[in-house]
What we know:
globular; mainly alpha; 5 strands; three-stranded antiparallel beta sheet
Amino acid sequence: MKISSLKLKAIILYFCANTNPIFLGKVKLMKLFYFLDFMHVKNYGTPVTYDYYVNLEHGPIPSSVKNLVDSVEDDVDNSILADTIAIKGSDNLKIHRVSALREFTESDKKYLSENELDILKKVCLRFQNSNTKEIEEASHKESPWKETKMFDPIPYTLAAKDKDCLVDEETIRLLTSVAL
């Protein structure tokens, strides 16, 4: 992952502020990151987080983001996100609801480019009222998930196989390798 913790926090706060809190659990949050990164790749050739994505049963998962979000529950004293989000599990529900501990502000906005803000807005508009199952199903229709097997890494270049991609595979490969 190649973003600062301040930028990561800004993205999470944006998702919390612009999606229905009833449906925002950890799994949905992971899918929102997937759509942010891969929609950005499809439009501009580069991801936002540069996280390492893995194909799991419930869809693509950004491994570093997942570990950082999990740490809010597992190791709150050492979690870099403990000042940003809270996670409340439920015995009755499978959802681990994510909630912001503060508002997304203009100060947070400065960590995001105009292109990133545009894609964030589009992702939130598309999925603001989607539940986990709906966003999972949407991720399962994407080539990056369909073209990989369970537990395989998901290369950003697979975004080029989707019809809505505006960038060719070679450009994605070149842009993502230069940034690494």
